Amino acid sequence: MSSDLKQLNKVKKNSRRNTNSQEPKLVERLIKISRVSKVTKGGKKLSFRAIVVVGDCDASRIMGEKLAERSLKRNITKIVFDRGPYLYHGRIKALADGARAGGLQF
Fold first, then answer.
1. How far apart are the first and last CA of the chain?
2. Domain 21-102: which topology?
3. CA–CA distance from 95 to each of 29, 43, 59, 102 (Å)?
4. What is the pLDDT of residues 7-21, one digit of tens each?
5. Cβ count within 10 A of residue 102
C-alpha cells in the first residue's frame, strides 16, 4: 500500500511540473521601488510599493506589424523613434522590427 502512495505522489509532483507548457516568454522589468509609511495610533506601518512592467516581445512584434498596416492605409511610409543618442532595445526593438517587416521605413 505504501508503494502505491509513493507512486501516486510521484505522479502528482510530475503533473505540477509541466515542462511542455506553451506559455509565452514574458519579460519583467523593475521600474521603481518606493518605501511607503503610514503613521497610525499604534506607530508607523512600513510597506513597499513596486512598479513592475511585464511584456511579451512576440506581442510587440505583432503590434508593430499592425502599426505598419494602419500607417500604410493613411499613406504614412516613414516614422521616427527619437531616442537621441540611445539605441532602443527589448520590446521597442521588437515593435520596430515588426513595423519594418510590415513595410515602414525608419
1. 69
2. Nucleotidyltransferase; domain 5 (3.30.420)
3. 17, 48, 8, 11
4. 655 555 555 555 555
5. 17
